[in-house]
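Support request from a user on the community tier.

User writes: "When I paste my C-alpha cells into the form, the page sometimes reloads and wipes my input. The last time it worked, I copied everything first. Here is what I submitted, just in case something in the input itself triggers the reload:"
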C-alpha cells in the first residue's frame, strides 16, 4: 500500500467543506451504470477522537479506493493513502494522528492491515493477507476489538510470524507493529465461537463449542478461570454477547428464552447475575445498541422492523435526534461518527430514494454543515420509492419484502425481476437506498425483494422455518411471491426474470430448473450450483460453526443434496441464463461453474458467462463491477 500524490473526483472541488452541486443526467437520458456502481464520492466518514480531522473512503489516483483527509480547522482536503494491490475496505482512528486500514487481495477475504500517521505519512505494515487461501502462515491478524479508548493498540487474533506456532490473542501496536501476547491457544482442543473484550482489551466473555452444545462463559479478571453461565444446543444458542459498559463488569447481551424474539439484558461478569429484560422490541429484532463514546451510558437500542428504528433511553439524545430530524426532514438521519467529547458529530441522511448526504453537526455553535453527497450523480427526485409488501405463502406463512416499481407502472403490470438476497439465513433485505433496485427500475423493471423464510428480522421460528429448505420451501416463497405480484397486477406474467447473488444466485438457478415455466431468463451471480460441493467444502475448511451450518441448515443427506442441486437438472432449463463468478471466490469455489458449464453445453442451453480472474465473492474492483452491470443490462434488455 502506497501513498497517492493525486486525487480524482469531487475532492478537487471541495471548498470550505462543501461539495459542488450534483451533476444530474439530462431529463431524457438514463443514468449510466457508472452513475450507480462506480465507487462513491465519499463513504465511511470518521471523525478523529479530538475532532480536528475527518477521514473518508473515496477513489484516488489510479481508480482504487483510498483514504482522504479533511481538516475541520482549515477545510483543506487531501489524499492520505491508497492501496497498491488492493482496495482499502475499512479504516479506523488510533488516537488523533494515526489511522489503521485494511483490504484483501483478489477477493480472498483475509485483509492485510497497515497504519499511517497523518503528519509524517509513513506507512507501517501491521499484518499480511493470506495470499494462497488458507495455506500461507504469514503474519496475519483478524481484529477482535478496535479498543476505542487505547490511542495506540487494538486487539487481534493471529500469529506473530511465518515461523511462529504461537496462535493467540495479541495487542497490536498501530505505531510500531509490535505484538504483545495476551493469551495463547495454540494446540487447544476447544473451538471458540466468539470473544468479547472489555475496555482495557481483556477478553472476559466468550462462547465456545463443547460436545453438541454452545457454552457461554465469563470471568471478572484475566487471571480467573472462565465460568460457565449458560449452555444451549449448538443448533439453537439463545444468547449473543454484545459489548461491555465502562465499568468492565456489565456485559450487554441478547437473550432469547422464549424461542422467538430476543430481548436486551445485562450480565454482571463478577456476580454472574442476569438482569431482567432492559428492552424488548415491539416488532422486528434488535440489531445493536447505542452507547456514549466512553461506554458509560446506554443511550438507545436499534431494531429493525419494516424500516430501521431506534428506541432512545437517554432523554437528551432523544431530543437531539428530534432536532436533527426536524432540520433534515424526509430522510433517515443517523449519527455515524462522533468526537470523543461528543460535541462534533457526523450525520448521514439517507432514504429509499437518496444514497445519502453527510453533514457535520457542531454542537458547540451549534451549526449543521453539509460535507457532501455519497453519489452526486443521482437525483433523488428521479429515483423510485421502495414499498413494503407482504403476502401469504402456500402453507400460510406470512412473507414480507419490498417492491420498487419503475416510473409509469404504478397501476399497470411491468416486467418483473425477483431479486432474492444472499446469505441466506439471518440475512434480510431492508428498506433504504438500493443501487441495484434503482438501476433496474430506471431500465423499466419492477424489482421484488422477498424476505423468504430463513431470513433474519422476523424471529427465531421464522428463521428456523428455512432449515434444509434450499430449493424447497424457501424457493416456494419466491415462487409464491411472483404469483402474488402477477395476481396483484404488478408483474407482466410473460416477462418475469430472477436475478441474485450468492444464495440469490443459487435461487436463480433453482428457479429456472425447478420452476422453469415461471421465468423468461435468469442471472446467477456467484451462486452455488451443487449443494454437495458447498457442504464438503464447509466440513473441510469452515470449523465447527461452518460444519453445523451445512449439516443442520443446508443438509447432509446425499439424496437430499442431489435433489436440491440445480446442476443435476440443467436439462429442465428453458430460457437463456447469464453467469458471473470470481476465480478467487473463497465461499463459492469456481468448481461450481466448472461443473455447471459442461451441463449447459451438454443440453445445448443458451448461456453467457463472465469470469473475473482477480475477484472473489462479488466483484470488488470498480472496473470488474461495471463490466458485470453492463452485461446484466444488455442481457436483460435482450431477453426480458
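"...and here is what came back when it finally went through:"
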Amino acid at each position: 500500500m502506497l501513498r497517492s500524490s493525486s486525487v480524482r473526483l469531487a475532492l478537487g472541488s471541495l471548498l470550505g467543506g462543501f461539495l459542488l452541486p450534483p451533476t444530474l443526467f439530462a431529463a431524457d437520458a438514463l443514468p449510466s451504470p457508472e452513475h450507480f456502481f462506480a465507487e462513491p464520492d465519499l463513504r465511511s466518514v470518521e471523525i478523529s477522537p479530538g475532532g480536528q480531522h475527518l477521514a473518508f473512503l473515496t477513489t484516488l489516483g489510479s481508480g482504487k479506493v483510498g483514504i482522504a483527509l479533511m481538516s475541520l480547522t482549515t477545510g483543506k482536503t487531501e489524499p492520505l493513502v491508497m492501496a497498491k494491490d488492493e482496495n482499502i475496505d475499512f479504516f479506523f482512528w488510533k488516537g488523533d494522528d494515526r489511522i489503521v486500514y485494511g483490504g484483501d487481495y483478489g477477493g480472498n477475504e483475509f485483509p492485510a492491515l497497515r497504519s499511517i500517521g497523518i503528519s509524517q505519512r509513513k506507512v507501517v505494515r501491521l499484518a499480511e493477507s493470506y495470499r494462497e487461501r488458507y495455506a500461507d502462515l504469514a503474519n496475519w491478524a483478524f481484529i477482535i476489538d478496535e479498543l476505542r479508548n487505547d490511542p495506540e493498540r487494538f486487539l487481534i487474533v493471529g500469529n506473530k510470524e511465518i515461523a511462529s506456532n504461537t496462535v493467540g490473542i495479541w495487542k497490536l501496536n498501530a505505531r510500531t507493529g509490535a505484538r504483545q501476547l495476551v493469551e495463547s491457544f495454540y494446540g487447544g482442543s476447544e473451538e471458540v465461537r466468539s470473544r468479547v473484550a472489555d475496555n482495557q482489551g481483556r477478553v472476559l466473555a466468550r462462547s465456545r463449542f463443547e460436545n453438541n452444545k454452545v457454552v457461554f462463559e465469563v470471568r471478572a479478571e484475566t487471571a480467573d478461570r472462565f465460568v460457565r453461565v449458560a449452555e444451549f444446543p449448538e443448533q439453537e444458542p439463545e444468547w449473543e454477547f454484545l459489548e461491555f459498559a465502562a465499568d468492565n463488569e456489565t456485559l450487554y447481551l441478547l437473550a432469547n428464552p422464549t424461542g422467538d424474539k430476543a430481548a436486551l439484558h445485562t450480565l454482571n461478569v463478577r456476580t454472574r447475575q442476569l438482569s431482567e429484560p432492559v428492552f424488548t422490541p415491539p416488532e422486528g429484532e434488535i440489531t445493536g445498541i447505542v452507547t456514549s463514546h466512553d461506554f458509560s451510558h446506554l443511550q438507545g437500542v436499534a431494531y429493525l422492523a419494516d424500516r430501521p428504528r431506534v428506541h432512545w433511553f437517554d432523554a437528551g439524545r432523544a431530543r437531539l435526534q428530534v432536532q436533527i430530524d426536524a432540520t433534515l426532514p424526509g430522510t433517515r438521519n443517523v449519527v455515524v461518527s462522533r468526537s470523543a467529547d461528543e460535541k462534533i458529530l457526523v450525520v448521514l441522511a439517507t432514504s429509499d430514494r437518496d444514497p445519502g448526504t453527510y453533514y457535520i453537526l457542531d454542537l458547540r455553535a451549534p451549526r449543521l454543515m453539509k460535507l457532501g453527497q455519497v453519489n452526486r450523480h443521482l437525483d433523488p427526485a428521479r429515483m423510485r420509492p421502495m414499498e413494503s409488501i407482504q403476502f401469504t405463502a402456500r402453507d400460510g406463512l406470512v412473507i414480507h419484502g419490498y417492491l420498487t416499481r419503475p416510473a409509469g407502472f404504478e397501476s399497470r403490470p411491468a416486467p418483473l425481476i425477483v431479486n432474492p438476497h444472499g446469505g441466506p439465513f439471518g440475512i434480510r433485505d431492508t428498506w433504504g437506498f438500493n443501487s441495484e433496485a434503482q438501476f433496474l427500475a430506471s431500465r423499466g423493471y419492477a424489482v421484488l425483494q422477498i424476505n423468504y423464510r430463513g431470513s433474519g428480522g422476523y424471529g427465531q421460528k421464522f428463521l428456523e422455518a428455512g432449515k434444509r429448505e434450499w430449493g424447497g420451501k424457501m424457493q416456494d416463497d419466491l415462487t409464491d411471491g411472483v404469483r402474488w405480484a402477477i395476481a396483484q397486477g404488478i408483474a407482466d406474467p410473460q416477462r418475469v426474470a430472477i436475478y441474485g447473488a450468492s444464495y440469490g444466485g443459487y435461487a436463480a438457478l433453482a428457479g429456472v430448473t425447478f420452476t422453469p415455466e415461471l421465468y423468461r431468463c435468469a442471472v446467477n451471480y456467484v451462486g452455488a450450483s451443487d449443494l454437495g460441493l458447498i457442504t464438503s467444502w464447509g466440513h473441510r475448511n469452515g470449523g465447527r460453526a461452518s460444519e453445523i451450518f451445512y449439516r443442520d441448515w443446508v443438509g447432509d443427506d446425499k439424496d437430499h443434496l442431489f435433489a436440491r442441486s440445480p446442476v443435476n437438472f440443467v436439462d429442465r432449463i428453458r430460457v437463456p441464463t447469464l453467469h458471473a463468478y470470481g476465480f478467487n471466490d473463497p465461499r463459492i469455489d469456481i468448481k461450481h461453474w466448472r461443473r455447471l458449464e459442461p451441463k449447459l453445453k451438454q443440453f445445448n442451453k443458451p448461456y453467457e458467462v463472465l469470469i473475473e480472474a482477480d475477484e472473489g465473492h462479488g466483484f470488488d474492483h470498480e472496473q470488474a463491477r461495471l463490466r458485470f452491470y453492463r452485461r446484466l443490462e444488455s442481457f436483460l434488455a435482450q431477453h426480458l
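Agent notes: The reload is a front-end session timeout and is unrelated to the input. The first strand starts at residue 43 and ends at 47. The chain is about 20% helix and 35% strand. Escalated to web team.
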